[in-house]
Amino acid sequence: MSIQPKTVREQVTNQIRDDLLSGRFEAGSMLREIELASRFGVSRGPVRDAFIQLSHEGYLAYYANRGVMVRHPPNPEDRKFITAIRQDIETHVVLKGASQVTEESLKVVEVALDRLKAACDAGKATVIALRDVEFHESVLIACGGDDMLGAWRQLCSRMLLTYTRHENYAQTYREHFEIFTPLADNDAKSTVAAIRANIR
């Protein structure tokens, strides 16, 4: 994920994603290109591109000749299943690749951790949720899990639609710090234990 959006498309995508996470759009509602283009003061192109991106990420469902619909959050039973699969992906990647983490890739993880801390300090839940995912993605990439990212992102988007873990922002940061510390020491087993404690 880029630190600053560089294009109109990225800015529109980020804003719509934030709106989805904050509950601005009701689950099951249809989003209209022309309405959002007017709101953002842009042409319909960037909005259309945002819809495609967010459909790939799993936040929206695209229907030919109808538009895009805001996906419903998973029910508790499905969310438990999704959580277990996400845990399995992350732990598999870490166990396989933690020993190969480079100084450069670890620095990217550390930057993501710092960004999560800044979000926790600011106390904005939607930003914390996105920084949380950004951190975990940086861990996967550092451990060589690039091939898993597509499926993993879909799982994350489903979980984010019911993300309610922000009662204690300090604890949110601490759990991720506890993932980073053993990763920095190439301790795959302890990193996995911290990931399993965090993802729930």
TrEMBL record:
PROSITE patterns: HTH_GNTR. GO terms for molecular function: DNA binding; DNA-binding transcription factor activity. PANTHER family: GLUCONATE OPERON TRANSCRIPTIONAL REPRESSOR (PTHR43537:SF24), TRANSCRIPTIONAL REGULATOR, GNTR FAMILY (PTHR43537). Residues 6-73 form the HTH gntR-type domain. CDD domains: WHTH_GntR (cd07377). InterPro entries: GntR_C, TF_FadR/GntR_C, Tscrpt_reg_HTH_GntR, WH-like_DNA-bd_sf, WH_DNA-bd_sf. It comes from Aporhodopirellula rubra. Pfam families: FCD, GntR. Keywords: DNA-binding, Transcription, Transcription regulation. This is DNA-binding GntR family transcriptional regulator. Gene3D superfamilies: GntR ligand-binding domain-like, Winged helix-like DNA-binding domain superfamily/Winged helix DNA-binding domain.
